[in-house]
Amino acid sequence: MTVTAPQGFRAAGVTAGLKASGRPDVALVVNDGPLDAVAAVYTSNRCKAHPVLWSERASADGHARAVLLNSGGANCFTGPEGFQTTHASAELVGELLGCGAADVLVCSTGLIGLPLDREKIGAGVRDAAAALAVEGGAAAATAIMTTDTVSKQALAGGEGVDGGRFTLAGMAKGAGMLAPGLATMLVVLTTDAVVEADELDTALRAATRVTFDRLDSDGCMSTNDTVILMASGASGVRPAPGALAETLTAVCAELARMLVGDAEGADHDIAVEVVGAASEDDAVAVGRSVARNNLFKAAVFGKDPNWGRVLAAVGTTAASFDPDRLDVSLNGVMVCRSGAPGDDASLVDLAPREVRVLVDLKAGPHTATVWTNDLTHAYVHENSAYSS
Amino acid sequence: MTVTAPQGFRAAGVTAGLKASGRPDVALVVNDGPLDAVAAVYTSNRCKAHPVLWSERASADGHARAVLLNSGGANCFTGPEGFQTTHASAELVGELLGCGAADVLVCSTGLIGLPLDREKIGAGVRDAAAALAVEGGAAAATAIMTTDTVSKQALAGGEGVDGGRFTLAGMAKGAGMLAPGLATMLVVLTTDAVVEADELDTALRAATRVTFDRLDSDGCMSTNDTVILMASGASGVRPAPGALAETLTAVCAELARMLVGDAEGADHDIAVEVVGAASEDDAVAVGRSVARNNLFKAAVFGKDPNWGRVLAAVGTTAASFDPDRLDVSLNGVMVCRSGAPGDDASLVDLAPREVRVLVDLKAGPHTATVWTNDLTHAYVHENSAYSS
User: Fold this and answer.
1) Cβ A3 vs Cβ A173: under 8 Å
2) What ipTM did this prediction achieve?
3) Is A184 part of the annotated catalytic residue set?
4) In which domain, by residue range, is B229 found?
5) For A275-324, what is each residue's pLDDT tens digit?
6) Which residues of B touch A221 (CB under 8 A)?
7) Cβ(A226)–Cβ(A186) under 8 Å?
8) Is the same domain home to A164 and A33?
């Protein structure tokens, strides 16, 4: 299940004292090759954290040997000192692994504006490098958790072009500030397939576009979102046509579903499925508008099938539709039919954790599903007392 | 203080039984002239309620004699029957007042998707017409309340071009689904100034743009938002240059501030002031993005000066700025200076109800202030059990 399940990877997770809780907070994932291909997507937030600014440059050439990750501080809006901390950490990893700093990507997560202790993270890097092991994937996944209640890992296998199998795995963290611009959260994916960087890049962008990019838990885009995919080639297997994309999308979708399922304070996981859209962009825009509607999200928390709030959210978009033709179903009950009250809304059962909202725009053949969560007392409680 | 304070207006507020609570729910405001000039702005939500669709047409010629308002049902997504109910209500008002139905504007507020009882509203119209009085303004303001805890009224006087004074007054309702597209909520404004419809229209658009349009309590745009301004000319006073705009903007700003102060479940009223913007649009976009950030709003509820969430919200906009030059102040403490930690955030006192967030983009001379509220347990509680 872990990022070290594919051949050619080692990992570690250690405690460097960055978190007041004393929980593990530094992770290292190393690609031992023979390939060192990498692709990555980053937050489109224009206020990017220092590790994002660093990793964007370091991954640009399609090569990386390692990813260093820390929780306990986002290293964002920490001034020039903050960038130097990221740089020094990458140099230390390079020194310990015998590669250049530019082959080390860095990810940070935690509170924005909190200076990261350079000595503590340095000690953590040394401990992690010493602890690197092919059994270290689970420890790494634990060390990147912030408000996550469970670590998130996924694994899938794919077919090679000449037979044989390759493996692809991933780990993810993220429970709040969960509304991707391009990618979201921290995600490290590994594969032992023989794939070059440009192929990795194409596959990664395609997969994140329909998985992490369709996740909008709380409408708040992070400054640190990063998804990294590394290929070691250690299986010697070159993927069959479509096999990389399929495997990658499956692992990303599984991780994204886990993120929704563990979102801060949520009682419900809500799939907003938009059908009959004139374009995929229209479907995503409508899905996202419903997913960001606090009133609808609070209604779901209260198990109240208040479908008028879905339609009010649809109406704020520029998508093609005629209000008098809209259908809305909640968990299979068509509560609004052609823009008028439909079946009895009291038949809707909102007790299960998973809620399905279906909006039919009747304007074309395109569809998209955006995942979100309900707005709960626990969300307000958790987020009214995070930094203090 | 009431809409009947200007000369030439009568109003009434009665109980028609549309609300389960038995509280007043039908209001009528009548312009007795000599002028019957009107201007109105409506929600830009594309899913417009039937009374909005009706009033858009009825106000297009710049003439109206009366506004009928009901709480206890938004008459939105109620099918063709719903539009007929609006039409029949306007016809009945016209019959009772001796004018055409097209001179009667209609506003509804309450739950979306709930059919409006035509008999009950008809009886309410008859009762309201019989109760019309120059002392009826306060009763009308009470009858349009939904989750509002207080009725909202404001009054100002202005100078005439040849001396003399005119009066301008308004009433408003709205406590949730409070994020205007063009206008917001239900607002009726009256003046006894001598003003033609086109001047009214210009003044109303200018005033709402910097008042109601800068209000974003919960990011949820209503299907029923309407702001109507009627002039009777009964004072015989033609406003001095600028006097109408000034008076109107003052009354709108006072009503908008009252709406923020009574927003559902709010503990804090938050003014997000953006300065140093390259354009007014940039300033509004940044202010609105901060105003819609659930994480920041929850932090304010928890009295937590978590300024990183302000910057993360700024970063999601397309406004001109350099992240390394941004300043953020919370209640006068500059917690972020030039994109790095500034003064001690623990000095920020978030105990008062009013919170001032100041964001300096350092990109130009433009400014704007967007008002919002915090995200509280009471908001979640109230909105998780509205329709049931």
Assistant:
1) no
2) 0.81
3) yes
4) 9-261
5) 999 999 999 999 999 998 998 999 999 999 999 889 989 988 999 999 89
6) 312, 315-316
7) yes
8) yes
